[in-house]
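From the shared-data thread, chain only:
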Amino acid sequence: MDNHTEGHVEKKDGDIETRKFFLNCMCLLLGRFDSKKFEKTVSEYGVQLSHVLLSQLQSADEGLVAGAVFLFKAAIVKPSYASASSVESGQMYVVFPLLLQLLDEGDGTARAVVVLIAEYCSMSTDRHCLQQVLKRLASGNLLQRQNAIDVISELVCISSDSENKVSHVTWQDIVNNLLERLSDEEVVIREQASKLLSRMDPSLFLSALLDLVYSSDDEGQSSASSALIEMLKYHNQKPEVICLLLDCLSNVNQSLDTPNTTRDVREGPKKDDRVLKLISEWSKSVQDWKLFVGPLIEKMFSEPTNATIVRFLSSISEPLADVADAVLNHILLQMQGQEDSVHPNMRTDASLLSRRQIERCAPENLVEIQQCLFERLCPLLIIRLLPLRVFDDLKSAVVYGQLPNEGITYECRDVNTRGQACIAAFLLKRAISKSEFEDVRKLAAELCGRLHPHVRINNFCIKKLYNFCSSY
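Structure, as tokens:
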């Protein structure tokens, strides 16, 4: 019995080695042909060659399967794409239904077929191939769903390394189906869909993904939250993705009233809490925060009434404090660029600078005046969300300049910083200026309380600041 078994194994091994030998012979032979002869040979013997290669895919020997896949891609898949006038006239179109049948198997054969189908989908301009895969992705059969999502995974890998980019429309079909799989009953499918979404263009699905995060379906909500974190971590060096997220979050909150007071901007709507709680996990993956400082601060300046941005920046205040000089330099440039006086319609009467008086302005001026108010509040709001420790370093040029040595005085009814532009000087100037909005003065005065006690400030400036704060 043992001799019989050994003989059977030897015969089987010999058969595999024989098939490998002839497979290598075919590779060498086809490799010697010029393009015309190669095309003619494949056209004439392609169907026979396809069936021979397909039968090898069912072998348990990995080397034989790998060789068959290589030859299949070279002789069948690529010629079908490159030389045929249309995909329907290529050899691959004839063989494709057979590959789909093999895709439904749960062994090494399916894995080999996954590679071939993904390769074909990446090259084909016909969407029929992909639609058949997506049909299986929505199947009630777990094996079909698993193999289909494997094809999508392989397609993503091929597309990222290939010059043959899959069309935008095709990717939209893929992400729509992957979003549905986030609610799949099988954990492994949900996890794979989440990972695949993270590698795709966020603009195709981020808005829809947020809808799932805020959905009432607990399972779908959890998977969507995981997918969001995966996506943000994958793009952790791309500030444009975070800006897109902020736009989508703002759209989520658009049904809420537009904030029209300082208090509204500071507190903001609460609906985005669920996403903002996830941001701390993403923030740990960011390697260079300086990449994000410019785009985020500029976005805040361009949308000064957007409470979502304020809340987002507040959620990453600690990492921002680690690059405080970069943040404060952007703020300082913005404050320097703003006009020293407020809106032209408000220069004549300082009493109009209170919130109550602003609300009584003529309708044609109200929107513009409120915009001006928020623009002047915006830099202060960003400073306010930073931790107190950013004011601890007396040697910080952007915060204090030369003030620890030269001090701040009050001359000619204005704050004199002796030409030293710094955050501390601007805060004091806005806090005691009678030609400033009341809300701006209040917030600036609050922030002046954070200044280091060793900063030399003229007694007259302190008195004006004290009198202003005592009036409330």
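The mean pLDDT is 79.
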